[in-house]
């Protein structure tokens, strides 16, 4: 990724230029980021330590939480640091690395959410064959293909951007390095690259979203023949996933379906899929899922009992030493 032009760094304009508002944003987004880390790590620990949460749905959910932690960590720490400084600079190499990792984890999440919809489709529409169709090996392959798809997509985006010449303005009207804002700074015609970006990122987002919509339409049609209790349980499980899909895919389609066009609202919209959605995912999946909540309660009780036993043991040891 050798940069053969006279731009060695880029300057972010950030979310706002108001210094007082930047301090407020620092506190708010710091709370958001801590919530992302704690919430998603709690989901991972709960699923990995609970013997009852072994279905494919929880297997995929643990990977979704892992991706959310990585995905938000690509942009949020830099955003927080930039709230505290006047010059929001990033080197050329770091910018390209951020671009690659951002699209890598973002596209992997898109594919994983699509896989999770397929898992729900099989569980509801073909329950007798569920364990055979969605076996452990199949789940592992689906996750692996999500990672591979994210890598291939990200490589295309990064290679397209690296080969652009940057020879003048270096101010990015955003808070992280993305293809669309960088296309505006390139000193060459970027129409063809913009079309490829739409064909790559935009069509992936839109096609996966349409697949998700079709799968849930089929699920809803299938539920018409089920009992009221069965419909309620299935809808409760699917509602969480549908909520996450809308929050994540909506802003992505809005931004990446436009070739070489950026709006001032884009960076505000980007906050939804880089920070808000990763923060809400643990709440969405736990508040509507009794199995996860029960597993968390058991872990809390186990940790509390262990801590009390350790304190009692330490007290006895201190008492023996004193006597």
From TrEMBL:
One of its GO terms (cellular component) is plasma membrane. Gene3D superfamilies: Rhodopsin 7-helix transmembrane proteins. InterPro entries: GPCR_Rhodpsn (IPR000276), GPCR_Rhodpsn_7TM (IPR017452), Olfact_rcpt (IPR000725), Olfactory_Receptors (IPR050427). Its main location: membrane. Residues 39-285 form the G-protein coupled receptors family 1 profile domain. The chain crosses the membrane at residues 20-45, 57-74, 89-118, 138-156, 191-223, 235-257, 269-287. It is a multi-pass membrane protein. It is found in: Cell membrane; Membrane. This is Olfactory receptor. It comes from Phrynocephalus forsythii.
